[in-house]
Write a structure and sequence with these properties.
The protein has five helices and five strands; from the N terminus they run E-E-E-H-H-E-H-H-E-H. It is of the alpha+beta class. The protein starts with 14 loop residues before the first strand and ends in a 7-residue tail after the last helix.
């Protein structure tokens, strides 16, 4: 199931887990409806709001188990697309921007201007950048695939080193040291 919903309140019961990855420790958060967040250890704690973690929902735990497995496959180079229900909380515009991120193929990049154009208004590249900055589900919703004009690496919740690592990983570059 490759869906993004915004039908569930930010106050839904949430579960979380952590996992080690080549880009550092990741914290995954899920509701019973889907994956709510993939957070990088080094990012600002106020970048996204996920809600209180209760760790009491078996359905959320099952989603977290699937997410960990799929992320491990991604980091091993065996997975190019994620097949998880998603439950990010955001405005209608943010939801549209995040859905467009999911259309960027593995190993490819686009500019913020191109993403804005795909959303119907090339003049909204700054708004797109702001929406991408609030993307709570990094890697799975691949905001790392959006770059500045001319291919410059710009903002990323996990830091520019992590963004570069993810892009190099997807490009098949063999020296992926962080």
């Amino acid at each position: 199931m490759n869906t993004m919903t915004n039908d569930h309140p930010a106050t839904a019961e949430l579960s979380s887990t952590t996992m080690d990855s080549p880009v550092g420790e990741l914290t995954l958060v899920a509701s019973a409806a889907g994956l709510r967040a993939v957070l990088f250890h080094a990012e600002r704690p106020d970048r996204v709001t996920v809600g209180p973690i209760t760790n009491t929902d078996p359905a959320a735990d099952e989603i977290l188990d699937r997410a960990v497995q799929q992320l491990r496959e991604y980091f091993a180079g065996d997975r190019h697309e994620f097949d998880l229900p998603l439950d990010p909380v955001g405005t209608d515009f943010q939801q549209q921007a995040w859905m467009e991120l999911r259309r960027i193929p593995y190993g490819q990049t686009i500019s913020y201007g191109e993403q804005a154009k795909r959303l119907g208004d090339v003049r909204k590249s700054r708004a797109v950048g702001a929406a991408n900055a609030r993307n709570p589900i990094g890697i799975v919703v691949p905001c790392h695939r959006v770059v500045g004009a001319g291919g410059a690496l710009t903002g990323f919740g996990g830091g520019l080193e992590a963004k570069a690592w993810l892009l190099n990983h997807e490009a098949g570059v063999s020296d992926l040291g962080l």
